[in-house]
């Protein structure tokens, strides 16, 4: 939470984010548990590990249903165990890993066991609210968490950060903007910060009119101009709901109120995040759009390791441009700010309704503009019914998540 005293602003950063000791190592190696190893973040993480075999060992890798991808991942990094959330794939995974010595398990409890096994750091890279339970389980064990799953903070940010604090879990932000801000804030006096700025690419429809956006296809929406990411976050980038989630994420990570969290559209995605200090200095972190940089920063923190990304060539880029976001064409962004003001029940509902609506769009059951319209209608309906008034426990979060999903599913059919 933010604490304001006159003009000075206290951030949660020094206490919570990256505030604890560096993750525990065994024999000079950091043992990792990678949740969501088959996804875009998971694969970038594996790339860093295979290039630094002396530095990292892998205790566990997990996925949802993709047994082939998970078996490949486990073999590639010599994981001790591989775990599928969906128990149906257990037999196939066991066959694929027969004779390797890699342990095999399946089911949600097995994913939680992987999250709480004897690892120094958990890479939280499951997509969606499904990542909340295993990541929280790791938090309760006081693990260092390389947090990609922003939904943990959108759904349950206050509870999540309180638990991290209580159990001494170190939260290292993987999300590129938050990682940028973490890098720029590190070792600085947070009281001297005026505001932080998250950059947004503007997505594939940055220059389209509302009328043009009405008929865009899932294929067009999935074509992010700069980043290669999973489906859900790619669609969220196209609606700019992703940036709304990131404002909520930054609020919980850095304890800043909404009015000190700004979004700036920057189509080149070269500047990832900025911190404005009270003396007028504006500090930025820059790099090519490649998630291996922020992931490596978290895995090696507080050190830095070599990563073979393409380097940012400013002369080749020529110019960097910035513009204010357009809340009329991208109403998801102001909607997320409003949900943040309403509270955790509203942000949990925002995520749940969005998960349902994005899925409906990808299945061609609704149009692109319907995504945000359905999320908004879901939140308004819950608010009118008095269902967004309080959220004091994970049980409450799951209840509002369920209610929002049911409403959004209904709205996606009508
Ligand atoms: N991709 C990026 O560049 C960035 C991503 N993030 C965040 O990181 C997270 C992961 O994103 P991304 O890698 O793009 O997503 P992907 O869709 O590429 O990968 C998702 C991973 O989660 C697993 N998974 C999906 N559903 C479940 C479930 N119900 N239970 C357990 N595991 C599940 C998938 O397994 P399977 O393969 O079997 O389906 C896969 O391993 C998201 O929260 C996203 O917002 C943040 C910043 C950047
Ligand atoms: C890579 C990353 O961190 C994504 O969250 C990215 O920011 C998405 O791009 P947008 O800026 O278009 O949302
Ligand atoms: Mn991001």
Automatic annotation (TrEMBL):
Keywords attached to this Swiss-Prot or TrEMBL record, sorted alphabetically, are: Isomerase, Isoprene biosynthesis, Magnesium, Manganese, Metal-binding, NADP, Oxidoreductase
- Residues annotated as domain DXP reductoisomerase C-terminal: 286-406
Q: Which residues bind Mn(2+)?
A: 175, 177, 246
Record domain 1-deoxy-D-xylulose 5-phosphate reductoisomerase C-terminal: where: 171-254
Q: Which GO terms describe its molecular function?
A: 1-deoxy-D-xylulose-5-phosphate reductoisomerase activity; isomerase activity; manganese ion binding; NADPH binding
1-deoxy-D-xylulose 5-phosphate reductoisomerase N-terminal domain segment(s): 32-157
Tell me what reaction this enzyme catalyses.
Answer: 2-C-methyl-D-erythritol 4-phosphate + NADP(+) = 1-deoxy-D-xylulose 5-phosphate + NADPH + H(+)
Which pathway does it operate in?
Isoprenoid biosynthesis; isopentenyl diphosphate biosynthesis via DXP pathway; isopentenyl diphosphate from 1-deoxy-D-xylulose 5-phosphate: step 1/6
Q: Where does 1-deoxy-D-xylulose 5-phosphate bind?
A: 150, 176-177, 201, 224, 237, 242-243, 246
Kindly give the SUPFAM superfamilies that the UniProt entry links to this protein. Answer: 1-deoxy-D-xylulose-5-phosphate reductoisomerase, C-terminal domain, Glyceraldehyde-3-phosphate dehydrogenase-like, C-terminal domain, NAD(P)-binding Rossmann-fold domains
Q: Name the domain of life.
A: Bacteria
Q: Where is this region: Disordered?
A: 1-24
Record-stated family: Belongs to the DXR family.
What is the protein's known function? Answer: Catalyzes the NADPH-dependent rearrangement and reduction of 1-deoxy-D-xylulose-5-phosphate (DXP) to 2-C-methyl-D-erythritol 4-phosphate (MEP).
Q: Output this protein's name.
A: 1-deoxy-D-xylulose 5-phosphate reductoisomerase
